[in-house]
Amino acid sequence: MAHQLEVDSVQLQFGEREILSDVYLKCETGKITGLLGRNGTGKSSLMNIIFGSLVPENKSVRFDGKSVPKAYQHHELLSYLPQYNFIPAHLTLNRVFLDFNLDFAPFEKFFPEFIQKHRSKIIQLSGGQRRLVETYVLIKSKSEFVMLDEPFCHLSPLMIAAVKELIKEEQPNKGFLITDHMYHDVIDVASDLYVLAEEQLHLVKEIEDLERLGYASSNH
Q1: Which residue has the higher pLDDT, 215 or 73?
Q2: Is pLDDT at 91 greater than 80 in this prediction?
Q3: Taking the model in full, what pTM does it have?
Q4: Which of 6, 52, 113, 194 is 20 to 30 A (C-alpha) from 158?
């Protein structure tokens, strides 16, 4: 049975500036939903609103029709990769994988550069390796839905290809909401695609819509 995450009636203002106006978005398990938009349009704000860590003027967040205003309290429903590093730097990889109830061996096999590194601390990793660990544990988490904000940031092309493969591997089991300025990688994995422009969310039906909405250009 497919599960649904819906957010609608979102109104967000910072001072006099309206960021989001009457936004509606739907994610489903078995699908990868891409969220695109220029810097400052409110993509991260929308994810924080869904997560419950940002309280806007108005919103409705529902899982299978049931209102869940503080999704961060329900790890079985939703996990969230923010733009910043969220795993404490002093923890070892062993501890991180234990906390997420995950086996280190498949990770090690998928990313050979981590072989015999299970005792390493997060602080000893490069920026790309740290991002990779955080992204991996959330992709593999037990949540029905996973939101990824800039998952490809700081990753090498090989790492990006591997992360996309992992997302597609997990797609039958959960729903993903992904945003990243590397929009070609988002488009590559997305089943559904939205663009945030002028406070509104637009469902993209054709790739040409990206240009029409002022998103895709030679500078992006």
Answers
A1: 73
A2: yes
A3: 0.92
A4: 194
Answer yes or no: are the C-beta atoms of 146 and 176 closer than 8 Å. Answer: yes
Q: Give a three-class secondary structure readout of 34-61.
A: EEEECCCCCHHHHHHHHHCCCCCCEEEE
Strands 200-203 and 32-37, bridge-based pairing: unpaired
C-beta pairs of 206-211 under 8 Å, 24+ apart in sequence? 210/36, 210/183
Alpha-carbon distance of 60 to 7, in angstroms, equals: 5
Query: Quick one: CA dihedral 110, 174, 83, 209, positive or negative?
Result: positive
Cα separation, 129 vs 137, whole angstroms: 12
Helices (H), 140-216: 157-170, 183-189, 208-212
Type of residue at 3: H
Domains along the chain with CATH numbers: 4-86+144-212 (3.40.50.300)
